[in-house]
Amino acid sequence: MNEQDILRGLYDETLAGNGPAVLDLTDRGLELGLAPETMLFDALIPALEEVGARFERGDFFVPEMLIAGRAMAGAMEVLRPLLAQTGASSIGTFVMGTVKGDVHDIGKNLVNIMLEGAGFTVIDLGVQVPPERFVEAVREHRPDIVGFSAFLTTTMPMFKANINALVKAGLRDQVIVMVGGAPVTQEYADAVGADGYAADASSAVRRAKELLERRRALVS
């Protein structure tokens, strides 16, 4: 098996959500001397982008996205420390968490995988994250974007509480705020003062990139 076979296999097996095969091919690629960033940018990321495109066309659904994301996550466990050693550049830092009162994390985790696959450094704060923890993380990590996830209509008001906490801490202007989750709408995101909203993991990555490029263009 040559390098092209490895890359094609990584693409195909990630698309199929075959985690064990993706992990095996990742290991074999490293044994062959394939650079971690080559496997990431030439196979894994394109596969996840195709998953997102198929989801948007209605050819894939959430289960297919999840298994593809998990397959890639297994490869990232191996590649992440190697990528750090090679100094592979991050396109931006994203702090993510499910809001206080909410323990749902499947959607959040899928978004995290997709963001990481797209080149973001992701700091996941987990679930039940109170406003003060988000403030603390923004102070500590200086992210480009902070994301609030909510699955319950009863926890959606925490978006506004989190944004108010950032305002009170003098940090609101320093970070892009994105919100999402099953019951969330663009209208609600606008009402609470978020900068961006995404209905699913695929559009979350695209929106995050758009917002980041817009902010950097304004600064430069």
Architecture overview:
61% of the residues lie in helices and 11% in strands. The chain has 220 residues and is α/β, with parallel strands linked by helices. It folds into two domains: 3-86, Methyltransferase, Methionine Synthase (B12-binding Domains), Chain A, domain 1 (Orthogonal Bundle); 92-219, Cobalamin-binding domain (Rossmann fold, 3-Layer(aba) Sandwich), CATH 3.40.50. A five-stranded parallel sheet has the order 2-1-3-4-5, with helices on both faces. The mean pLDDT is 91. InterPro entries: Cbl-bd_cap, Cobalamin-bd, Cobalamin-bd_sf, Met_Synthase/Corrinoid, Meth_synthase_dom. This is Methylmalonyl-CoA mutase cobalamin-binding domain/chain. Residues 1-91 form the B12-binding N-terminal domain. Keywords: Cobalt, Metal-binding.
Topology of helices and strands:
Elements: H1 3-16, H2 19-32, H3 36-57, H4 62-86, E1 92-98, H5 106-117, E2 120-124, H6 131-141, E3 145-149, H7 158-168, E4 176-180, H8 186-192, E5 196-198, H9 201-219
Parallel strand pairs: 1-2, 1-3, 3-4, 4-5
Helix pairs in contact: 1-2, 1-3, 1-4, 2-4, 3-4, 4-5, 5-9, 6-7
Family: Belongs to the methylamine corrinoid protein family.
Domain B12-binding N-terminal: 1-91
InterPro entries: Cbl-bd_cap, Cobalamin-bd, Cobalamin-bd_sf, Met_Synthase/Corrinoid, Meth_synthase_dom
Short description:
The protein has nine helices and five strands, in the order H-H-H-H-E-H-E-H-E-H-E-H-E-H.
